[in-house]
Amino acid sequence: MDPFRIGVTAGRRRPVASWKQLADFVFVQVSFSVEAFLRWRDDNPTDLPVYAGVMVLASAGMATRLRATIPDIEVPDELSGRVAADPAAGVDAACEQIQALRDTGAFDGVHLVPVGRFREVAAQLEGRRP
Questions:
Q1: Of 19, 20, 77, 118, which is most buried by a Cβ count within 10 Å?
Q2: Model confidence pLDDT, tens digit, residues 39-50
Q3: Can you give the pTM of this predicted structure?
Q4: Containing structural domain, residue 47
């Protein structure tokens, strides 16, 4: 039987607390920016497996709520506009971000927040496997 594992979360704007280095893995807070994740990775060296938080932006209204309630999550205006014009654009953007994060080799995977769009994300990612 595999051992039970315990992970921790890490914000992108603060250093990882030393006690969190005792965990088995780290989930980094959601971001819509691959560059922000890479900066976090450079600023927080660890040998722990690290999973980047990727969220599907489901609507322009969701972007407004995120901006108002979670200031550490920056929603790009460009993405909000894409989703306002086409709600499927949120799935496209999440899949593009997942692929870009994978291509960096800097992360062990992602922690996906699909916001009710898991099947769409899964179907799109199945088509992108190398």
A1: 20
A2: 999 999 999 999
A3: 0.88
A4: 7-126
